[in-house]
Amino acid sequence: xxxxxxxxxxxxSIVGGGTILAAILRTPARDLARAxxxxxxxxxxxxxxxxxxxxxxxxxxxxRRHGAIALDRSVIADLDVAAAVADIVDGASxxxxxxxxxxxxxxxxxxxVAAADAWxxxxxxxxxxxxxxxxxxxxAMFTQMTDPQxxxxxMAVALLATLYGALLSNLIALPIANRxxxxxxxxxxxxxxxxxxxxxxxxREQPQNRQAPVTFAPLAEAAE
Length: 224
Description:
Shape: rod-shaped
Strand content: under 5%
Number of strands: 0
Distance between the termini: 113 Å
Radius of gyration: 30 Å
Largest sheet: none
Structural class: mainly alpha
Order of helices and strands: HHHHHHHH
Helix content: over 70%
Number of helices: 8
């Protein structure tokens, strides 16, 4: 028995092609593209908020010395922090900055969950496609009972399709989905840490010396 014994292009095309087709039909194209792009994040280290916290502290020192307008020239790679700092420069209230950060964090979580769900859907579809391949192989076997060689190849398709479906589901798609979900939970927790310092920065840089509106007495009262 050699590794080539377990290779069958027909069974592989049924299971692999069927799983991909099921993913395309059940998942929006944008989420499916995110699911494929998310593969590049698996080898990376998990997200850590500490560098962003240090950058926010540095931005606070800059604002303290030169005013909030100086933050507009800062280079900020993280999109959430950049959006919050832009609002702070524009004079947004601390409540508005907090709401913006929470919305961005929820939107990011939704994108991560959608990518993980796409892989979970493939893990669910792969065994079913393996069963489809098994049924196709059995049908081919029963229709060619007079040809022993054809029976052997059809039986190989039937058995290997089930094997491919189980391996694709449990060794590829499901582990990827679980790792993406774990990374999403960790990033959501870490990103919650950047909200407080940014809201504190917005509170400190919010314009405090606002002129009270000038009121004028009616002419009749002024004459009296």
